Amino acid sequence: MGENWMKSRYDEDSDILYLLIREGKVKDTVEVGEDLFIEYDDNDNPVGIELWRARANVFGECMKYFSKITESNVQRNMHGKSPEKVMHH
Predict the structure, then answer these.
(1) CA neighbor of 19 nearest in space, from 57, 46, 59
(2) Residue ranges covered by each domain of the chain
(3) How confident is the model at residue 79 (pLDDT cuts 50, 70, 90)?
(4) What is residue 25's predicted lDDT score, i.e. its pLDDT?
């Protein structure tokens, strides 16, 4: 294809987030961490990434980040400080 691209899909029933890096036949799948798998083709190039328990592993982490931002904004409004100052204290 020549350009950088990645496709993703999420299976809500199995709670798996799949990232397709490039089209190709999967030769091997390697578990690289808890709930994280990398798929490789015949030339050992990565073709896909599977993240199991996506709600907890991805969405949960995003929600923690959004909670920090929200907390920061509440503190800023209460104390008249910018979010950057609140985040660093």
Answers:
(1) 46
(2) 1-52, 54-83
(3) low
(4) 95
